[in-house]
Amino acid sequence: IKTVRSLHRKPRGYVEEGADAEDLLAVCAALGDQAVTVVGHSIGGIIAMLAAIEAPQRFRQLVMLCASSRYLDDPPDYRGGFDAAQLGELLTMMEQNYFAWAGSMAANVIGSQRKDVAERHLRNQFLANDARIARQFAEVTFYSDTRDALGQLTIPTLVMHTDEDAVVPPQAAEYLHANIPDARLEWLPCRGHYPHMSDPALLAERLRAHL
Questions:
Q1: Helix or strand or coil: residue 110?
Q2: Measured in Å, how far apart are the chain's first and last C-alpha atoms?
Q3: 3-state DSSP call for residue 40?
Q4: Nearest alpha carbon to residue 18 among 38, 3, 40, 37
Q5: What pTM value is reported for the model?
Q6: What is the pLDDT of residues 20-48, one digit of tens each?
Q7: Helix or strand or coil: residue 74?
Q8: Which one of 28, 29, 52, 64 is most buried, by most CB atoms within 10 A?
């Protein structure tokens, strides 16, 4: 997708979100001509946004759940959640001790609701991935910057964000809301970066009210 290729500057050989957006468009095409609603979590919300910019006729509505157009701080005006040193440490830990990273990351981002069960499930999901590929995908994700693309999104968009997210700060959600045309913003009264795992009943109730 030309949009993402013009916006991202990443190490050579790394897969860009544009490839994932193309995959999403292929799924939409396989479903037929009816426009769909996509709920995209975290970087999935950005992938869905890029797909919707490329082929808006395929989409009826987009829900961006705990998403961010840039995870790296850009002082003085943008708060993404991480500085360069923090991201470097995170990626180094993933490379040197992926097992320890999976446990630490799951504990930090899951939130308080149903913590034991959800945290264990998330850790196991991390560990089920190939460590090398997971690290590459993390680098692509955390160093991506799609802020310039937000204004190109033309489909109805709902930005949903938890009260406390260790990955994406509230300022990043507010930035999406302010820069996506006619976007709505809704705060979920729960904690964590994975509300579909930590408080699925609440999220399902809120989604039903909008879809």
A1: coil
A2: 27
A3: strand
A4: 3
A5: 0.85
A6: 899 999 999 999 989 999 999 999 999 99
A7: strand
A8: 64
